[in-house]
Amino acid sequence: MKNLSNTLRNLCLALALIAVGSFVTTRALGDDIPTFSDPDVTGFVKSYAQFVDDIIDAYKAAKAGDNSKATALQAKAPELQAKAAQIASGGKLKTDEQSKYLAFVQACNQKMLDALK
Fold first, then answer.
1. Which among 56, 80, 81 is positioned nearest to 70, based on CA atoms?
2. Count of C-beta atoms within a 10 Å radius of residue 99
3. What Å distances lie between residue 23 and 80, 114, 116, CA to CA?
4. Is the distance from CB of 80 to CB of 51 less than 8 angstroms?
5. What is the pTM assigned to this prediction?
6. Distance between CA atoms of 88 and 72, rounded to whole angstroms?
7. 62, 59, 41, 56: which is closest to 104 by C-alpha?
8. pLDDT value of residue 95
9. What is the mean pLDDT of each run of 10 residues along the chain (117 residues)?
């Protein structure tokens, strides 16, 4: 149980570091899911927001003894990590959308970290 909780926590931290990269922002969007000019980016932020909710649910389930949700999420993490890195460095964001994207990712990551405390 403790190992699974640590795995989930490490998974969240890894996603946070990869998604945000070297960018830093202090603006947070809370639970709002922004839209972007590139449909791939909009699709990713929706997927990422759902993943955050799934991580939180899996952590709660693991604390209650059900590890099945966490196991399922481990397979999805590499895909999201790759997509986050592609968006952050791939020119898919317009200049005026970069801070909105980074603020959203940071808000999601903070939501995960808060839930895992």
1. 56
2. 14
3. 18, 21, 23
4. yes
5. 0.70
6. 25
7. 41
8. 87
9. 56 50 35 86 92 91 88 85 84 88 88 86
Residues 6+ apart with CB under 8 A from 83: 44, 47
Beta-carbon count within 10 A of 40 CB: 13
What does the DSSP 8-state code read for residue 13?
H
Name the token pair of 64. Answer: 């209650």
What one-character-per-residue DSSP string does 23-79 give? -------TT-----SSHHHHHHHHHHHHHHHHHHHHHHHHHTT--HHHHHHHHHHHH
The candidate with the shortest Cα–Cα distance to 114, out of 9, 1, 24, 2, is 9
